[in-house]
Design brief:
With 223 residues, the chain is an alpha+beta fold. The protein has helices at residues 22-35, 64-71, 76-83, 105-108, 129-149, 186-193, 196-201; strands at 2-9, 40-47, 54-61, 92-97, 115-124, 153-160, 165-166, 173-183, 210-218, 221-222.
Length: 223
Amino acid sequence: MATEIVDIPLQPGLDINDAKSSAGKILQEFFGVIRDQDGYQRAYHGRQVEKPNVWQVVIDWDSIDAHKKFMSSPIYGPFVKNMMPIVDGEMKSMRHAHLSPHPPSAALSGTTAPVTEMINHYFSTNISQSEQSSFESSMKQFSQVLEQKAEGFKGFAAGWVVEEVEHEGVEGKAKCWLSCIGWQSVEAHMAFRETKDFKDNVHLIRPDSMKAITVHHTEFTAV
């Protein structure tokens, strides 16, 4: 099982949630094609809170190979071309992650988590296996703190990104861990950051081996 994550910059002023608009019709066609693919499981999508013109799409597949099979099929080219009228520039940052738990619905579905904190933790590509294992244990511990102490916490899913990625804070390519944390609201997340429980445990998500970190919020809706 694998999860695809892609960030799509939208043309300004579009209401993709208006099913009667041209943008809304393109959105419906987009997910209509996706749903028909072998290996598709479920999808979530929404705009980033901090950058509303960035549309984030998250798709659960049976495997990365299932997604790659779709990408190599004859319908993929027309599928991408059909999206271009609403895209401002290039669809970027397509990547895959093995998130646990799978499915990551508790952290990403708008019905359970109205907003999701998306954290990208960047490491050197030569991070050791012991450092990876240590970080995995730390993230598990941090998720338990959230579950036990964080008011407004709704769900957690996380895992390593399969592809090496680029980030300005890391020379060359980077290895990335993605954390998806569901919250009742952005305000709930911000309030937790001011608590002693967060301050006592923030070191768990910011180890010395980490080179950079990015955080944003997305208001996802399950398809």
